[in-house]
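Running this now, will post back.
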Amino acid sequence: MIDGIQALKPALRTASQDPLLKGLQVYVVGGAVRDALMGLPAGDLDWVVVGASPEQMSGLGFIPVGGDFPVFLHPLSKQEFALARTERKSGKGYKGFTFYTGADVTLQQDLLRRDLTVNAIAVSLDGKVADPFNGCEDITNKVLRHVGPAFAEDPVRLLRLARFAARFSSFSIANETMSLARKLVQLGEVDALVAERVWQEISKGLATQSPERMFNVLQQVGALNKVLPELQWSDNISKALARASSLKLDTAGKYAVLCSNSNNPQALSHHVRAPSEYKACAVLLQYFLHAVNADIKNSSAVLDVLQRCDAMRKPKRFELIVRSASCLIDAGKYTNVTYWLKAIEAINSVDAGAIARAIGNTPQKIKEAVYNARLSALQNL
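Update: finished.
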């Protein structure tokens, strides 16, 4: 493991010289520490303050913004500083917790409530690492392991476990963590997840290098049909997602591949509140797969596909649909990516405006002439 704490030192040095933080026990925690230790770029810093009260933070000029628990904005940098807290299960789902943020909460108690050991590491302003749950060792051994039994109380932790498995594809998942994940599903905690939170994690998982692993993990613990009940998951879709990632398709393309075998991608998209562009890509890919598997042999059929996919107005989206189709085993035999990209260029080379000006104010004749010109351009391919 690289001594990646070096990457955090500029931020730690700046914070240690901040007069507003003098006398406070301040730590960087979570993902930034994990990534720095792994030699990866450290993202946004999560700050925790131990031993302080809300009144003390407000008195120093910090701006309270937290809802369920005290979080404060630095008045100048606008960075967020959360008070150390503990949590107690008080209801179903990821919102079913009661928080305690007294000044007597220790750093270790705050770290204990976190999901995975690799995310339960803190660094003080003087660069000292606090690792009470051996997260550094798990990073070295490439293991994703839960911090404590409370892992089974929060369904979001299961989504995060699956997402981290996709991001860090060389990491194994500890057997006892998989057991707790199955218990979480059996207890019905997953049923309490809200669509927006599910989509937030799925979209992050799709952005990883191995998105298929996220859904394989959810399948293994029995959560996939609860999180995405309309999804038809299979080994072929898993392999297609891996190919989509290797081709560096964007997340909308990967999502379309994910939904490609499902009976109703529109209903699936509605269930997780997927953005409209993702929903459109999923629906259009299914239509395109049907058209391609019908083995198109004539230019009028090709033009019909291009028009129904709105390829003239949105050529980039159509290109994404074609490349997504090429990732699927059966469709790949029929999907000539180069041909379809040339077909887009061909129909867009037709100057519809010039045709309209030449014909005059006769809409039906203009429509027919533009259609025939596009058809001719495709035939010349």
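The mean pLDDT is 90. More later if anyone needs it.
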